Amino acid sequence: MRNGTTRRAFLLAAGLTAACLSSPIPAPALAASGSSGVSTAAAPLREYTQQKLHWKPCDAKSPRALRCATLKVPLDYSDPGGRKISLSISRLKATSTTERRGVLLLNPGGPGAPGLQLPTELQFPAEVKRQYDLIGFDPRGAGQSSPVSCGLTAEEQADHPYKAETFTKDVEWARTVAEKCRAKAGDLLPYLITRNSARDMDVIRAVLGEKKISYLGYSYGTYLGAVYMQLFPGRADRFVLDSATDPTRIYRGTFQDMAKGAEQAFTRWAEWTARRDRTYGLGDTPAEVRATYWKLIARADREPITFDGQALTGDDIRADNSTFFHVKAGAERIAALKKAAENGTPAPTPSGTTSTSGTTGTTSTTSTTATSGTSGTSGTSDQAEAPDDNYASIAWSVMCADTRTWSHDPERYRREAIRDKARYPLYGDFASAITPCAFWPRGSEPQTTIDNTVGALITQNEWDPQTPLFAGRAMHHALRGSRMLTVTGGEGHGVLYVPGGNSCADKAGTLYLTTGRLPAEDVTCRATADPA
């Protein structure tokens, strides 16, 4: 995310930026499996599934080959004759008419990251481009798809770590955000859930005239893909889930898993950096490196460090939990911050580091820039830009309404934050702090239980603190028909088709997408280069 938005969303906004089950169901029908919980029979949805799309240039900055269109979906699928909302989608047509297989829907994560530009931003090989129309879309409530706004100020879009002395104020912040969202968008909030976004994907499938869809989703997008597989198993063709979440820990547990993953990454970083003390001067043992870091944090809390024109407190530095996604970039950043603190003057940001305090969602195995929160840059030309608070508004809307496991007792958040600060000093007090979900209105449906045998390929870096390896293994366990590809030594959040990615993993992903053949068993690739 960008500055000012909630730091705890777990996304990969890839921003340069599935075995077939049963017989196909005709495209105009939209009858989900019995697990959907809401009747989506064909007749009530016919006005949506038989829409005609009008493709046009996305905007002046987009490649000419990328075309955009708008379609309507019901706000509430249990009442398809009721209120309608708009979805914006994009298409990069397959380069071959004879080899074309179908459509490949793409999602960058979030929840709520816009995805219209993904077809041209991801680095797909020619084989994939020949076989698939690449389909991007802004999920409901996000970007150019009926964007939701709670009217949040920049300060209200930021969250904070637990502190005993500020807890009362933080509870009021969480309550205020929830109340503002209820006041400004309360009629939408119960329906901004992943289950409905999965149903939206199936409307897109039907409108495009396809019997099935293939899919590539990153981070939160893996959960969206898994929910689609659960609701529409017979329509899931070749599904790739990159940097997967644990579907049993949506979302409170996901934040806490991020704190555990950040601590693991910090430990690895300290060991790596200690072996290079002559380069970075942060200590020649892991204990010394850790001590140097925490002294820097304490120094910044006493007196903010001026860095890249910003005055950074210790909390600001810790809040950027992407710092240790890559050990080399992390060492460069901390060394530069240490120098800035010693000199009392701004220091230049080393290449490949993340300089913006509070920015999560760095992507891939190199330091690309997240597209989440770049409101309106990818919209269709006849639509207004999304409001400035759209990303924070839709992220909280989905995370709070998707599950009914959020506690409404502020004291429970206090207890868990104290516990996790002790367990995971780097980020635990951020991950377990109180959120607006403590005061959020109930979502329209219960959380989806993921448990099916649909085929899928799950790809995971060994050293991804945002969606840690253990989370990906939990998704693999829930999707009993899946295979898992692990990049040992792989750094960062995101594996496939990203700058500086892993060629072994890309080949395996491409083989699956182009042939439909999953590996016979789980696969291991090795990182292609040492971080140094």
Please describe the topology of this protein.
Blueprint: H1 46-49, E1 56-57, E2 67-74, E3 84-92, E4 102-107, H2 118-121, H3 126-131, E5 132-137, H4 154-157, H5 167-185, H6 194-207, E6 213-218, H7 220-231, E7 236-242, H8 252-274, H9 277-280, H10 286-302, E8 305-307, E9 310-312, H11 314-319, H12 327-343, H13 390-401, H14 410-423, H15 428-431, E10 456-463, H16 469-478, E11 482-491, H17 503-515, E12 523-526
Parallel strand pairs: 4-5, 4-6, 6-7, 7-10, 10-11, 11-12
Antiparallel strand pairs: 1-2, 2-3, 3-5, 8-9
Helix pairs in contact: 6-7, 8-10, 8-12, 10-12
Q: What gyration radius follows from the Cα positions, in whole Å?
A: 22 Å
Strand order of the largest sheet: 1-2-3-5-4-6-7-10-11-12
Strand content: 5-15%
N-to-C CA distance: 27 Å
Secondary structure category? alpha/beta
Strand count, sense and closure of the main sheet? Answer: 10 strands, mixed
CA-based shape: globular
Description:
This protein has 532 residues and is an alpha/beta fold. It has 17 helices and twelve strands. The protein has helices at residues 46-49, 118-121, 126-131, 154-157, 167-185, 194-207, 220-231, 252-274, 277-280, 286-302, 314-319, 327-343, 390-401, 410-423, 428-431, 469-478, 503-515, and strands spanning 56-57, 67-74, 84-92, 102-107, 132-137, 213-218, 236-242, 305-307, 310-312, 456-463, 482-491, 523-526. The strands form two sheets. The chain has a ten-stranded mixed sheet with strand order 1-2-3-5-4-6-7-10-11-12, sandwiched between helices. Strands 8-9 form a two-stranded antiparallel ribbon. Strand 8 and strand 9 (310-312) form a beta hairpin. Helix 8 (252-274) crosses helix 10 (286-302), helix 8 (252-274) packs across helix 12 and helix 10 packs across helix 12 (327-343).
